[in-house]
Amino acid sequence: MGIKYEEATGMLPPARKPKTLFKKYEGNPILTRRDWPYPVNGVINPGAASVDGETVLLVRAEAPSVISHLTVARSADGFTNWRIEAQPSLQPDPYSREEAGGLVDPRIVWLEEQKQFAITYISLDSEGRSVISLAITRDFRTFARLGSLMRPQEWDASLLPRRFNGRFALIHRSIIRGQVHIWMSFSPDLKHWGDDRRLIGTRSTAWDCHRVGLACQPVETQSGWLLFYCGVCNTDGGPIYRVGLALLHLNEPWRVLRRSEDWILEPTEPYERVGDTGAVVFPTGATVNRETGQFNLYYGTADCSVAVATADLNNIFDYITSCPKVE
User: What is the average pLDDT value for the chain, to the nearest integer?
Assistant: First the structure.
């Protein structure tokens, strides 16, 4: 039996083209290490929020020591004239063993019940082992750390912004028996977690065959939650990171209603294909203008810089509702 085209190349057959939903900003990358007010090796994977009419990014910045921290950048239009904090906004606690290796990959949601922004991020110890951690803020100037949420070796995490049947919901990536899938867990108090349910798994002969993980924070619509996720396919030239889309039930978000067969964003530009890790688009933040429907997706590129792509929210929703139902 011959080797399938997907298995040999990590790409879909030429007859199938990914859906073009997003337009990459012509001024990309919007943030690089050259923009930083202090020395860093690279800036990537920002959480994003709309605050007081501005776009706020909480950017993962890698220090010369190769240990990452998180720094706030603000922009009036979400594309240009970024104002970057002169010092790290959240950096590893020197007295915490679980943060000795750095803080990475934040996702941000507004918790209406608490009137606070919740920031889930990954804390790394000195051996690179990961835990999901939580911090809260109202203004992205002062932060309160609430500690770790989940067992070690979890990654790619975001809370949903409200409770379901009295419980908070957390989306995260788990490695179980060597398989890397996206899961949802529940908690009555943001401290004790359980009732784990698998949401999105890898597909053996598709572009997301080797790993999947949450991309930006889930985005609520009237008909369900938009779940953007990263899929990885290992090829002879190295892994390729692309972005897919799923739709979760509005009131029962552990139910996946639809899932895209194709990717909706892939690394095509030089700034996405050449860097510390080639062929990577990795979204961790999004903002939505509910009046105009403009959707801004912020992502790390090749583990070096930050870029943004835009789409119309209605077009995104029309696309995912045309995708196959999940049985």
Answer: 92
**Domains along the chain with CATH numbers:** 20-322 (2.115.10.20)
Q: Would the pTM count as exceeding 0.70?
A: yes
Question: DSSP string of 58-93?
Answer: EEEEE-TTS-EEEEEEEESSSSS--EE-SS-SB---
Instruction: Please say if the pLDDT value at position 107 is more than 70.
Output: yes
Q: Are 72 and 85 in contact (CB under 8 A)?
A: yes
b/e map 172-181, b = 16+ CB within 10 Å: bbbeeeeebb
pLDDT higher than 90, residue 305? yes
- Mean pLDDT confidence for 150-178: 91
| H helix or E strand, kind and range, residue 203 | none
* β-strand pairing of 54-62 with 83-84: unpaired
Q: Which tokens in the block code for residue 237?
A: 């030239």
